[in-house]
């Protein structure tokens, strides 16, 4: 009997000792979980929950492995949820930043409802979101014609004038860096009844390439490096004379400048180059009068170092009206060159347009024959014809 009581006592002691061992192991697991929570920086709520579960299990002096497993699973779920929430916040912030940098799709105001043009505007804006490159090409062909018979009671003479324009741009636009490239070729001619030597006289001949690279310093202000090439491609004669006023690559102008470019509002650029280099070259000095372009007699090439200012502004109150203004000033601290060109295009429909061009110019280095000082030069053109823009 005593032996049976001793065996029963030993079994109870062993059971109690096993329970104490499991409780110690539970404390160790709880401490380990708590340390992990501190390491990953989880909420205090999860730590309190672990402590409450541990105190409950210790008070009952029992081990519930299922509850401990659920507790560890809860820890994993909370951690994953916290990571998901963090990713969502980061993604939301990124989306806000991307939306702020994305150009807004705005359809221009229009006098004439054109659903095709509206759709093209939207598609063009979407393409600009995907690529930093901008491409545009405009072709224009305009004519003016007048016919008068010899016996017309008011007199007069027949005439015909034509003007062709091709201009475009290829630009690379980023938030801090932009690289803009423009080219323009204008060719125009007209018949003059008073000129017996030439059936057609060149009235407009210009080939120009302009490139500008900008790097942003602060909002709206950029450091700028610009270069411009300008020349003629066809011969131009004086009326009733074989003397050339200009010839291919006569004159040839090249400007390069370093400075600042200020863009306070959309479509307005004010570029100032305190250091600007300009070269003028006359290839055919035998037939072209070099003094008409500011060179001295016998001189073929002229080099100048000075400063330049360029202001460009485009105003479009509605889609059918576009006013493009360019002002250029250059000085070598001895002579001053001022050039203002304003072109206003009136879009009649998708294919027809009218253009009014006003171009005054003043150059103190150019003194024409018979004059004692430089005078303002001026020309004006009003035409109507075909035009189309490619993007």
In short:
The chain has two domains: 17-101, no CATH class; 132-390, Porin (Beta Barrel).
Write the layout of secondary structure elements.
Elements: H1 2-40, H2 44-60, H3 65-101, H4 115-130, E1 133-146, E2 159-173, E3 177-190, E4 201-218, E5 221-231, E6 236-237, E7 244-246, E8 252-262, E9 268-281, E10 301-318, E11 321-331, E12 336-347, E13 352-363, E14 377-390
Antiparallel strand pairs: 1-2, 1-14, 2-3, 3-4, 4-5, 5-8, 6-7, 8-9, 9-10, 10-11, 11-12, 12-13, 13-14
Helix pairs in contact: 1-2
Strand-residue fraction? 35-45%
Please tell me how large the radius of gyration is: 40 Å
Number of helices: 4
Strand arrangement within the widest β-sheet reads 1-2-3-4-5-8-9-10-11-12-13-14
The percent of residues in helical segments reads 25-40%
Number of strands: 14
| End-to-end CA span | 108 Å
Query: What ranges have pLDDT less than 50 throughout 5 or more consecutive residues?
Result: 15-43, 57-68, 97-103
Cα shape: flat
The run of helices and strands is HHHHEEEEEEEEEEEEEE
For the residues shown, what is the average pLDDT?
77
The second-level CATH architecture of the largest domain is Beta Barrel
Structural class: alpha+beta
Query: Could you describe the largest sheet, including whether it forms a barrel?
Result: 12 strands, antiparallel, barrel
From the structure provided, what is the oligomeric state, counting identical versus distinct chains? single chain
CATH class of the largest domain: Mainly Beta
């Amino acid at each position: 009997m005593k032996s049976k009581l001793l065996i029963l006592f030993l079994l109870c002691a062993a059971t109690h000792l096993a329970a104490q061992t499991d409780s110690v192991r539970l404390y160790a697991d709880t401490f380990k979980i708590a340390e992990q929570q501190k390491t990953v920086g989880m909420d205090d709520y999860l730590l309190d929950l672990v402590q409450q579960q541990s105190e409950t299990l210790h008070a009952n002096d029992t081990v519930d492995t299922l509850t401990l497993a659920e507790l560890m699973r809860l820890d994993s779920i909370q951690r994953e949820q916290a990571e998901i929430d963090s990713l969502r916040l980061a993604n939301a912030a990124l989306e806000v930043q991307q939306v702020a940098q994305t150009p807004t799709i705005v359809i221009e105001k229009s006098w004439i409802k054109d659903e095709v043009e509206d759709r093209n505007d939207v598609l063009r804006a979407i393409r600009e979101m995907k690529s930093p490159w901008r491409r545009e090409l405009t072709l224009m062909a305009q004519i003016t014609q007048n016919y008068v018979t010899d016996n017309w009671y008011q007199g007069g003479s027949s005439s015909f004038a034509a003007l062709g324009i091709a201009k475009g741009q290829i630009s690379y636009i980023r938030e801090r860096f932009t690289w803009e490239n423009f080219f323009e070729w204008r060719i125009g001619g007209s018949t003059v009844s008073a000129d017996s030597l030439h059936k057609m006289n060149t009235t407009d001949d210009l080939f120009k390439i302009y490139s500008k690279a900008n790097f942003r310093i602060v909002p709206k202000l950029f450091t700028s490096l610009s270069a411009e090439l300008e020349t003629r491609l066809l011969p131009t004669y004086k009326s009733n004379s074989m003397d050339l006023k200009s010839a291919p690559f006569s004159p040839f102008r090249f400007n390069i400048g370093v400075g600042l470019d200020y863009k306070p509002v959309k479509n307005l650029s004010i570029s100032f180059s305190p250091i600007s280099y300009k070269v003028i070259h006359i290839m055919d000095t035998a037939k072209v009068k070099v003094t008409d372009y500011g060179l001295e007699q016998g001189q073929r090439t002229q080099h100048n170092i000075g400063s330049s200012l360029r202001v460009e502004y485009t105003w479009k109150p509605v889609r059918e009206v576009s006013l493009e203004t360019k002002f250029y000033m250059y000085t070598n601290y001895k002579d001053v060159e001022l050039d203002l060109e304003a072109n206003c295009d009136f879009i009649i429909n998708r294919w027809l347009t009218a253009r009014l061009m006003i171009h005054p110019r003043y150059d103190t280095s150019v003194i024409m024959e018979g004059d004692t000082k430089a005078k303002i030069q001026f020309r004006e053109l009003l035409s109507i014809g075909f035009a189309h823009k490619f993007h």
